[in-house]
Design brief:
The chain is mostly helical. The chain is built from 5 helices and no strands. Helix content is 77%, strand content 0%.
């Protein structure tokens, strides 16, 4: 509230002090620059996290597909269990980034829908029910 009052007083008095006007203009431009730079840094960080998470998911995607299409009556192999643990860790990591504000809500919603699709699978769900008891996934749950 004080800054607009100073600006009004300075600009609308009979003979404005141009040094004060220039200083105020400099402060406003610096503030704008700082806010713009901050926003660009946040977007850069978001992009890095987004790309890293997608890269990790891409590495798991084929193996996850094989698990989903497997026989629901069969126990998971050691390799399948490790793939799912890696996926659960990725889900927890993504959730943590979302909780910290690094992931946009629209991106989290899309990721969460994909996670739900996997977690609806009987084989994956059984392992998840075991794993959730360990509380190792940054409070992530479905």
């Amino acid at each position: 509230m004080a800054i607009p009052a100073v600006i009004s007083f300075t600009l609308f008095k009979k003979e404005p002090d141009y040094r004060v006007v220039a200083t105020l203009l400099g402060v406003l431009l610096s503030l704008f620059y700082f806010l713009q730079k901050q926003r660009l840094e946040e977007m850069k960080l978001f992009r890095e996290i987004f790309e890293e998470c997608n890269k990790k998911y891409d590495a798991l995607n084929k193996r996850l597909g094989l698990i989903v299409n497997g026989n629901n009556e069969q126990e998971l192999t050691l390799e399948e269990r490790q793939t799912l643990i890696d996926y659960f860790n990725l889900c927890g990591e993504e959730y943590l980034y979302y909780q910290q504000g690094y992931i946009l809500p629209s991106v989290w919603d899309a990721w969460h829908k994909g996670m739900s699709w996997y977690f609806d699978n009987e084989r994956i769900s059984r392992l998840w029910q075991e794993e959730i008891k360990t509380e190792s996934y940054y409070d992530f749950s479905l």
